[in-house]
């Protein structure tokens, strides 16, 4: 009995069939782990664990009428009333603004605000002298001064420094009238002055 061994020849590789390279299994797993871990590492590098933001505010210096911050005109700074006196009386009389009328606006300012007050010469001024008039050609001269610390004369239209802070303050203005004695006719003497505050 004869043994027949068949030998099959390998088919030659076709020139038009590409060779496929298969990656090793351990390399595939390593690449997958690297791709999954990459976003986590990137987030850890860009998002801080203790973020912060800035907070700021600006306080502007200024003044307002206490209790009526929208009022900008017609503010009652007060009235100086020297009272009633005999026609023959002479000499000086003093009175504070608002001391007799009881209605005087109070001002508040941002602490540290440099405030100045000025008062015009009134309706009957002669030179630098303010005067009250009886409407019939007779006058009683008077002066105004700021009484805060050392009294300061409020000459017509000359600004004087005034200290106002967050505590409501009525303008500390004092008037001094000089009665002329026998030359004063009986009647009511009056004047109106304009007060200006600047800062």
Describe the structure concisely.
The chain has 199 residues and is α+β, with helices and mostly antiparallel strands.
What can you tell me about this protein's structure?
With 199 residues, the protein is an alpha+beta fold. It has a domain at 63-198: Immunoglobulin-like. The protein has one helix at residues 25-46; strands at residues 63-65, 90-96, 106-109, 115-119, 130-133, 139-146, 152-153, 160-162, 169-170, 173-180, 195-198. The strands form three sheets. Strands 2, 5, 6, 7 and 10 form a five-stranded antiparallel sheet that branches. Strand 5 and strand 6 form a beta hairpin. The longest helix has 22 residues, at 25-46. Mean pLDDT is 79; it is low at 1-13.
Summarize model confidence as the mean pLDDT. Answer: 79
How many strand segments? 11
The second-level CATH architecture of the domain at 63-198 is: Sandwich
Helix content: 10-25%
User: What name is given to the CATH topology of the domain at 63-198?
Assistant: Immunoglobulin-like
Class inferred from helices and paired strands: alpha+beta
């Amino acid at each position: 009995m004869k043994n027949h061994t068949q030998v099959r020849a390998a088919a030659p590789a076709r020139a038009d069939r590409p060779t496929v390279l298969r990656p090793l299994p351990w390399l595939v797993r390593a690449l997958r782990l690297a791709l999954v871990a990459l976003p986590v590492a990137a987030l850890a590098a860009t998002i801080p664990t203790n973020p912060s933001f800035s907070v700021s505010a600006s306080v502007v210096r200024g003044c307002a009428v206490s209790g009526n911050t929208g009022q900008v005109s017609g503010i009652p700074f007060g009235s100086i009333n020297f009272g009633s006196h005999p026609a023959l009386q002479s000499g000086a009389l003093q009175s504070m603004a608002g001391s007799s009328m009881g209605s005087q606006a109070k001002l508040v300012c941002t602490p540290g605000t440099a405030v100045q007050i000025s008062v015009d010469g009134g309706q009957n001024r002669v030179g630098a002298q303010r005067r009250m008039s009886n409407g019939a050609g007779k006058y009683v001269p008077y002066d105004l001064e700021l009484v805060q610390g050392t009294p300061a004369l409020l000459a017509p239209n000359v600004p004087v420094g005034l200290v106002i802070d967050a505590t409501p303050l009525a303008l500390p203005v004092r008037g001094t009238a000089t009665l002329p004695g026998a030359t004063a006719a009986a009647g009511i003497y009056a004047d109106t002055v304009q007060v200006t505050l600047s800062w």
